[in-house]
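Exercise 4. Each item below gives a protein and its sequence. For each, produce the structure-token representation.

Item: Transcriptional regulator (Massilia psychrophila).
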Amino acid sequence: MSDSGLKIVEGTALSARQKKDLLNRLARIEGQLRGVQKLIALAAEPSDCDAVAQQMAAARKALDRSFVQLLTNCIVNQSDNAQDLMQAQAGAGRLAAMLDKFA
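Answer:
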């Protein structure tokens, strides 16, 4: 079990270390979002919206960095695990489609 209580499954998509790193990042983002919720609940003055916006932007950037880390890990792992050029090209095609769909 990892610190988050999730069982890390062995596989070729991501290493156990990569999964743990991503889960830790997501746990920090989760904490940021809980903080944003508290800021919203306590907002009383117009200037409080600046603090909320700043924290929301920080959480969004952190999530974007996690997405990039995920893709980077996938690229490295797929190229390392490819048996031949055709398999590497197929993996690159899947990653390109993922970027097109989600980025």
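Check: The first helix runs from residue 16 to 42.
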